[in-house]
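Hi Y.,

Following your request, here is the sequence exactly as I used it, all 69 residues.
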Amino acid sequence: MDIRIRLGQNVRALREARGWSQEDYADRAGIHRTYVSDIERGRRNPTITVVEKLAAPLGMSAGALLDGD
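Below is the corresponding structure, written out as tokens. Let me know if you'd prefer a different format.
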């Protein structure tokens, strides 16, 4: 599976498990809501810096977010 698709699926599942909207999550991560939407749909190829920003509010490492652990 394409890593962008896997990342998007992981982000969406973890965000929804916490009951956060895309806007809530984007605010916590310090990125724009539409960027979160694009990531969840596998339409963006985020930098490792952005992956770290996505992982931080979830309390996990960038690697774990990519792996889905």
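Residues 3-60 form a domain with the 434 Repressor (Amino-terminal Domain) fold (CATH 1.10.260.40).

Thanks again,
Q.
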